[in-house]
Amino acid sequence: MKQRLAILGVGFLATTWAAALPQDQTANPPKESLADAARKAKAERAKEAGKSVKVFTNESVPTSGGISVIGVPPSEEAAGSSGATDSTDPARAKQRQEARDQFRKSSSDLALHQRELAVLQQKLNLAQEVFSFNPNETLQQETFRTDINKLTQDVEDKKRQVADDQQAISDLRDEAQREGGDTSWLTKPGGTGSPGSSSAASEKLPPPGTREYWQARFQTARENLARAQEEQELAVNELTLLQTRQAQELNPTTQAALAQAIPAKQQEIVTNRAAVEKAKQDLEALEKEFEASGAPADWSQAEPPAAKPQ
Asked: CA-based angle 194:196:200, to the nearest 5?
């Protein structure tokens, strides 16, 4: 009897649990875990944003290929301002080299013309002193007045020349400033030699044997000779003024300073005289080379200046 009751009880419990199980699953479904909820929310946010955001960790940071950034990298920006990209842009490098050559030439011209202006001003001052020294000598006064008028005009012409040199230098700096803001490359060594030198000119020569080739070489040779003669004349004038001042100076200290400056100026004249002779020889050698080439005679002459439009 007890065994039968036990069997009936187990069957009753099994039947009750089986009948209740579907109802419990329908009424109380199992809850989501926190991890599942987080993943679902993240998926929804990515879907709304239209794209997913990649997050880098210490393990996933790329070790090659670089990371894109907005704007110009600082290294490239610095290279652009300093001219470091010239080596990869032959046209830009040539343009900058021509600007350097012109800057050096204008700077050299400015220094020379300023010295010439100082000499002319001193000559004018001396002429005015002599003119006012003896006003009774009418004939001498007329001569001195002519000299003073000429020197005054020469001083004004030289001042304009100095101003032109300064303007040329300023224009080159402004152009460099507009190009990239950095003007230091104008004064960097360019490797083509000093202004007017044969090494500087040889890199710009047209094809050998052409009319333009001979004209360019003759122009350079004549400019070198004219420059050497100009520097020689300037040194002689400076020496003459030093000697004149020494003869007129009463202050012993100033006289001693002038006495020390005179030998140095005399040595400069010797050096300049040698430079003039060298320039003459170079021009003569070029003339012989030109004659031996059989080129037409007029190829050694510069092109006539273009007529100005009316």
From this structure: 65
Rounded to the nearest 5°, which phi and psi values hold at 55?
Answer: -105, 125
Side-chain-facing half-sphere of 185: CA atoms under 13 Å: 25
Specify the residue for token string 């343009």: 95
Given a contact cutoff of 8 angstroms between Cβ atoms, the answer to whether 101 and 192 are in contact is yes
Other Cβ atoms closer than 10 A to 39: 12
Q: How far apart are CA 119 and CA 179, in angstroms?
A: 38
Tell me if residue 30 falls in helix, strand or coil: coil
Q: Give the start-to-end residue ranges of the domains of the chain.
A: 91-185, 193-296
- CA-atom Rg of the chain in angstroms: 45
Give how far Cα 201 sits from Cα of 110, 194, 197, 211, 293, Å: 21, 10, 6, 16, 20
248-273: b (≥16 Cβ within 10 Å) or e: eeeeeeeeeebeeeeeebeebbeebe
Tokens at 239, concatenated: 């020496």
Tokens of 79: 């290279």
Q: Which two tokens stand for residue 33?
A: 């875990």
Residue keyed to tokens 């001498």: 140
Looking at per-residue pLDDT, the higher value among 4 and 172 belongs to 172
Alpha-carbon distance 270 to 70, whole Å? 63
Whether residue 134 has pLDDT greater than 50: yes
Angle at 212 between CA 211 and CA 216, to 5 degrees: 120
Residues 19-25 have a mean pLDDT of 45
pLDDT of residue 176: 86
Q: Which amino acid is at 229?
A: Q
Task: Band the pLDDT of 138: cuts 50, 70, 90.
Answer: low
- C-beta of residue 273 within 8 angstroms of C-beta of residue 185: no
pTM (2 d.p.): 0.62
Candidates 37, 281, 84; CA nearest to 184 is 84
